Amino acid sequence: MINIKDLNFKELENWVKSVGLPKFRAKQLSKWIYNKKVSSYDKMTDISKDLRKFLKENTKLNNLELLSYEKSNIDGSIKFLWKLEDGNTIETVFIPERNHNTLCISTQVGCAVGCKFCFTTKDGLIRNLTTAEIVDQYIQSQRFVGLDNRISNIVFMGMGEPLANYDNVKKAVQIFTDERMAGLSNRKITISSSGILAQIKRMYSDKEFPQVRLAISLNASDQKTREFLMPISETNRLENLMALLNSLPVKTGYRIMLEYVLIKGVNDSPKDAHRLAKLIGGNKKRYKVNLIPFNPYPSSPFERPEKERVEKFQKILWQYNIGAFIRWSKGQDISAACGQLRKKELERANLIKLL
Ligand code: SF4
Predict the structure, then answer these.
(1) Which one is catalytic: 91, 133, 161, 259?
(2) Known catalytic residue at 13
């Protein structure tokens, strides 16, 4: 049985034709699913009962079941925990900002990359998410917060390395940016990667991959520290990564974001800041730096630096005229680290099994 949300528009049209329906049904279905975000075929009131019955019997529409959620009393961010059909769980975070709403979505169950500061990676990679599972995070979250609280920005920064699930992420981006489907602005979608060189090259040379923003989880200004924090850097070396990023065709409005998790005593010294500025060198207009003070989780081996140290790091980058922003994590009063709510639920389920 096909899942409707696994299909980009061209595939949806082909499927509609293959079952003997007129072409306009593709647009009609898209409108109900991506615009009105309905949860069942029964709500598609301009579709006949017979056709709805056929769709119910031959396609799947929903994927995710909301297991639980936590809402921050401080900033209103909401962390959702979804159950997949095979029993696995994933997280999505809704982040309300002053003039827009952002959704941080997951692309894998777990992650194989193994960044030392990341909670998600603890159990390794379980599996890739399907396109429908990626897309449904957006639809169901939007439904939950209400259509008036429009989600305009999507960041692929949740669980998983998006470019390790290339085909499904590509199709999800096609669905998000297609005007006949979700119709979100390309510039408001960001794919965050740990820096897999081959996959970044592939994405930039793939004509069918809609242009979106790229964020790179950099986290260090020298090879040794990066390799310590991100073992993937052994084979995707920092100098090669920077050379590749410097060579990418970057349009106005699509500056590359360098994500830098600041960890006390590891990569947060003024020396690190100067080195980062030198690494960027004359390519200041190509990058924006996001400084993210580390968000400790239970049993985490690292600590968050003091506010003054974070601000000093930022000021040093400013001295070099580098656009640097501090992103204090949202939802400090909920399970803020990525994967933490999922872990809590797993522990609860195991406890119930033991009782
Ligand atoms: S930070 Fe991202 S890439 Fe690294 S282990 Fe965590 S989920 Fe994977």
Answers:
(1) 91
(2) no
d(CA 259, CA 319) in angstroms, rounded, equals 19
Query: 160: Cβ below 6 Å to ligand 1?
Result: yes
| Verdict on whether the full-model pTM lies above 0.70 | yes
Write the class of the CATH domain 65-354: alpha beta
Summarize pLDDT for 284-325 with one digit per residue, the tens: 999 999 999 998 887 888 999 999 999 999 999 999 999 999
Ligand 1 centre distance from Cα of residue 15 (Å): 35
Residue nearest to atom 7 of ligand 1 (CA): 160
- Please identify, by atom number, the ligand 1 atom nearest to the C-alpha of residue 217: 1
Q: Is 227 a catalytic residue?
A: no
Burial class (CB in 10 A: 0-12, 13-18, 19+), 104: buried
- Domain parsing of the chain, residue ranges: 2-60, 65-354
pLDDT tens by residue, 221-256: 999 999 999 999 999 999 999 999 999 998 888 999
63's tokens: 């994927």
Q: Quick one: CATH architecture of 2-60? A: Orthogonal Bundle (1.10)
